[in-house]
Amino acid sequence: MINQLRGKGVFGDAVLDAMAKVPRHLFLETALDYMAYEDKALPIKCGQTISQPSTVAFQSELLDAKPDMKVLEVGTGSGYQTAVLCAMGLRVFTIERQKELFDISKARLSALRYRAKCFLGDGYAGLPEYSPFDRIIITCGAPEVPQALLDQLKTGGVMVIPVGGTRQEMTRIEKRGPAPSDLLIQHFGDCTFVPMVKKLAYRAL
Length: 205
Ligand code: SAH
What we know:
By secondary structure, the protein is an alpha/beta fold. It has a single domain (about 1-190), classed as Rossmann fold (3-Layer(aba) Sandwich). It has six helices and nine strands. α2 crosses α4. The N and C termini lie far apart (about 30 Å). The protein binds S-adenosyl-L-homocysteine (SAH).
C-alpha cells in the first residue's frame, strides 16, 4: 500500500514513513481486515467509515505539520488517522461524537501505545481548554467552517477541512492573522466524507 502511495509521487516521506509504521488492519473489524491495505475507505461501526489511505496521506500532507506540534483532530472514528498523526511525532487531541466509536478507538489507541488524548464531544465546539492548536484536521464533511475551530487555531496555524454537503471540497486554511481577511483559503478538489453532525450520539453496545 505504501509503495502504491509512494508511486503517486505527491506525498512526502514524513507522511509515508509514518503510515508505514501504523498497522491499518488493527483499526478494522476482523471481517474486513483482509482489505486493510487496499486504497479504500471501509465501513466501521455506527455507519461511519475509516478514511481511504490516500485521503489520510493527502490530509496529513496538507497539514504541513512539524514534530511536536499540537494538533486537534475532529472525527476520531477508527483512530487510524489519529495513529498516523501520532506516528508523525505530533501531540494529538482527538474528538469523536459517537460514544461507541470513542470507547473503541480510545482503548485501541492506548493498547497500541499511541499517546493521543481522546475526547467524547462535539467537534463543532472544539477543545477551547486545550487551545490554541498549531494544526486542526477535520475528517468529516463540514457544511461550513466552524468559527469556534478557527478561533482555536494559532496565528500561523493551518486547518484542513472538507467543506460542503454530500460532496465536499478539500480546503486548506492558513490563519495569517486575527481578521477574517487574513485567512488564506485554498481548495484541493472534491472529496466525500461522512457528514459532520452536531451533538453527541449514544448507542447501546
Ligand atoms: N479519521 C477517521 C474518520 C472517521 S469518519 C478514520 O480514519 O477512521 C468521521 C468521524 O467523524 C465519524 O466517526 C463521525 O462519528 C465523526 N463526527 C462527525 N461529526 C462529528 C462532530 N461534530 N464531532 C466529532 N466527531 C464527529
